[in-house]
Structure formats: structure tokens, C-alpha cells
Fold this protein.
Amino acid sequence: MLELLYKRRSTRKFKDTKVEKEKINMICKSALLSPSSRDKRPWEFIAIDDKQTIEKLSKCKPHGAAFMKGAPLCIAVVADPEKCDVWIEDASIASIIIQLACESIGLGSCWVQIRKRPTSDSTESEEYVKKVLQIPDNYRVESLIAIGYKDEELEPYTESSLMFEKIHKNLFQKKD
Ligand SMILES: Cc1cc2nc3c(=O)[nH]c(=O)nc-3n(C[C@H](O)[C@H](O)[C@H](O)COP(=O)(O)O)c2cc1C
């Protein structure tokens, strides 16, 4: 597990290679295995491999989304807030599970934040994504996960990069 976590970095450059159906299935199964509050499973996942749609999605906000244009696969993580009051936590957990599943099968990924982000004309990125993907009004969009074979090698984390000062024992003790 630690090896996987050290290795996982946000990949924003992808090879122009399709992600195989079996790998997409594996990623989708991983998402469905995500834990959720009271097992309500308020999420739904949209796996998008249509280039034009991904290109449209890459315009959902002015910063931090343009790279998605080069991704062969994207998974939108959406949820129904009426099914669970802590849907944000549930959708976030599913998002990171998707990223770890990708890493475990040799794929890179990057989270693109949608909730609370504006488009370039100051409307909501969430509304933009809902329109592009025909998501029903009552659903919310947490993230888009861009996925593909890595076309950049980012340094894995090392033990010396870990902020051990953030770990407290028994009580929170402020360190100067
Ligand atoms: C909640 C969340 C939102 C993020 N949103 C974006 C985003 O919109 N665009 C982007 O390029 N990266 C985004 N990232 C990736 C972070 O920038 C990245 O995880 C962070 O810089 C640490 O780098 P690493 O993932 O390589 O460890 C997001 C990550 C998280 C956890």
C-alpha cells in the first residue's frame, strides 16, 4: 500500500493510447467498492472516452482543467445529496479510490475540482459539466478524474518529504 501511495502523483500529460475496456471495468468496480456513510452509496460514475466530450469538459474552468483535453478517459463523480447528507465525503472517497485503482494498474490520473469552481465567464463549472454530460438537476458534481497512460514521469514521494510534524500523539500539541 505504501509503495502505491509514494508512487501516486497527479499526471497531467497522457499518451495518445486508449484505456482498455478491462481496465475501465476494473476502475469502475473499484469505484463501486468505495465505502460510504451508512452505506447509502449516493454516487454515480460517468466513464467518458469520447474525445469531443472530454475536450468540452476541459473547458469547464479557466485554471487546472485544460490538460484534460489530452486524456483518453475521464470519470465524472456525481452524487445525489438527497440520498446522503455527507455526499461530499462519499464522492471524495470514491474519487481517490478511482485514482489509487488507476495507479495500481499502471495508469496516471488527476483530480479536477468542479464543485465551487467558476467557469471563465463566471458561471458555475458544475452547471457547465451537468449540461455537457446531461446530468439530472438533482445531482451534484464533485470531481472529474482525468485518466490515461502517463506521458510524464514525476518523482515519487520519499520518506523525507513527509511532514511528520503533522502527526500528534494522544493530544494535539502545537509545535513551533
Ligand atoms: C480536492 C482536490 C482538488 C484538485 N483539483 C485539481 C484541479 O482542479 N486541477 C489540477 O490540475 N489538479 C488538481 N488537484 C491535484 C492537486 O493539485 C495535487 O494532488 C497536489 O498538487 C499534490 O500533487 P500530487 O497529486 O502529485 O501528490 C486536486 C487534488 C485534490 C485532492
Q: What stands out?
A: The mean pLDDT is 96. The two ends are 32 Å apart (CA to CA). The pocket of flavin mononucleotide is lined by residues 9-10, 12, 64, 110-113 (CB under 6 Å).
